[in-house]
Amino acid sequence: MSEFSMDSILDMQRQLQERYKAVWSPMCPQEGQNQLLWMICEVGEVIEIIKKKGAVRIMDDAAIRHDFVEEMADVMMYFGDVMLCYDISADELRQAFEAKWNRNMRRWNVQTGKQEG
Q1: Beta carbons within 8 Å of 34's beta carbon, 6+ residues apart
Q2: Whole-model pTM?
């Protein structure tokens, strides 16, 4: 795979869901909450590594970094599943992300450090 994008993540998650459709719950809005809860569990595992191993070891110890990045990948997988459950396209997410980013770019006055309207 040459490109790692939200589209590719969603495609990979669709393939995974298709492979295990006989044993996994279907990706539908009713399943979205469960996928989100599983994602939060994975975020907890990421936090656990940060808490127990620390930022320096994540950056300097290859084995710890591997575990950390693997847990981050788990978060992304469940994030993709949540998007599939609610039929959110990569383009829809991109548009919302860009709009939010633009608001945040105007949110703070860099000279004063104060939040603007």
Answers
A1: 25
A2: 0.88
